[in-house]
Amino acid sequence: MPFEQSDAVLVLWDIDHTLIETRGVGRAAYAAAFEQVTGHRLEQMPHITGRTEPDIYAATAKLHNIDPPSFSIFAEALSAAYLARQDELFHRGRTLPGAEEALSLIAGTPTIRQSVLTGNTRAVARTKLEVFGLDAYLDLEVGAYGDDDGNRPALVPIAQSRATKSYGAAFDHHNTVLIGDSPADVETARKGGARVIAVAAGGTPASALADADVVLDDLTDTDALTKAIRAQ
C-alpha cells in the first residue's frame, strides 16, 4: 500500500507481554544458551521486564559471579536456542487477545507504519514474531532492538532514524507512538522521544501505567487503539 507522508505516524510495538507470551519457552531458551556459552547452569535471573538483552546478560552473569564471554557470542547461541524451540513456542506460547487484529488493522492504514522496539535481539524478535505469523504486519527493518543499544530509551531515535530513511517522512515525539505493557516501556518512550500507549494485559496493573498518554485494558478495542494512536 502506498505510504502517505502527510500525517505520517510511526508505531513501535513492544513484543513480550504486549503482543505475545512465551509461557516458559523463553526461559528455557535462555537457560540453554547461558549454559552453552558460560559453562554454568542458570540458577537465577534478574528482573527482566523492560530491559535489553545485553543488560540482562550482564546482570545474570553478575548474579552467578562469572566473567562471561562477549554478548555477541551469547546472542548467537540464544538465537539458535529459539530456532530449535519454534514448534514448542507455537504450541505453548500465545498471542495476546486482540494483538493480531490490531496489527492487521494498523497495517492497512495508509498514514501509519509499524515496527517494533524491543529489548530482544533482532534475530530473536524475528523468530518470536514469525512463529505466530505477526511479522507479516510489521516492517522489521526499521525497528530497534536490544543488540542496537543496551540503553532502551536510545532505541527510540534509532527506530525514528531508520523509518525516516525508509519512508522519507520525519518522525519525532509528535508522530511516534510506542505501545508496551510495563512502566519501563513508558519510561523508554518518555526519555527516548515518543508518545506512549500502555496495555495492561501483560500482568502489570493499569494503576502502575498511569504515566502513559493512554492506558488500555487490552488490544481488543481497536477503535480505542486507533484513536489513541492518532491523538496528538
Structure description:
The protein has 232 residues and is an alpha/beta fold. It folds into 2 domains: 9-21 and 94-230, HAD superfamily/HAD-like (Rossmann fold, 3-Layer(aba) Sandwich), CATH 3.40.50.1000; 25-92. The chain is 41% helix and 12% strand. The protein is built from 9 helices and 7 strands. The strands form 2 sheets. A 5-stranded parallel beta sheet has the order 4-1-5-6-7, with helices on both faces. Strands 2-3 form a two-stranded antiparallel sheet. Helix 1 packs across helix 3 (71-83) and helix 3 (71-83) packs parallel to helix 6. The longest helix has 14 residues, at 25-38.
The SSE string, one letter per element, is EEHHHHEHEHHEHEEH
Structural class: alpha/beta
Q: Figure out the total of helices.
A: 9
Strand order, largest beta sheet: 4-1-5-6-7
- List the quaternary state of the chains: single chain
Uncertain segments are none
Can you tell me the overall shape? Answer: globular
Share in helix: 40-55%
Mean pLDDT value: 96
Keywords: Hydrolase
GO cellular component, one term: cytosol
Organism: Nocardia pseudobrasiliensis
Protein name: Phosphoglycolate phosphatase-like HAD superfamily hydrolase
